[in-house]
Amino acid sequence: MTKAYSNQRRRAFVHALQEIDRFWGEILGDEAYYDLHYSDLFTRMWLHRNHTFRKTELYAFMPRISHRTAVKYVQRAIREGLLLEFTDAQDRRTKRVHLSDSMQERIEHFLDHAIATLEKKPLRELKNSGVR
Fold it and tell me: What is the pLDDT of residue 39?
């Protein structure tokens, strides 16, 4: 297999990825949220941030863990105020959930930081210099 990119660019990318991961942990504070399943949940909810979800819909946002574990993850995020839960006005048996305003702001701050990290040197300089 031929190399698509140089080891220099690969290293730069790994450093950028580590910085992005570090910042994710910083904005969420609790080490439990370093888990990629939370990243899946929160970023997928952010993609549809103007939508309220049936609580049961959220479990599909974490496809690589069991349903039972997904329930625990969602409950923890609700308990800690990252997600807000309320009773559906049309169907009082159904619970609806959305990102808290604070969590939406944190996700947007994280996304801005991630984009900036990927756009800054050395990745940008290596790309502009023609190094693959």
Answer: 92
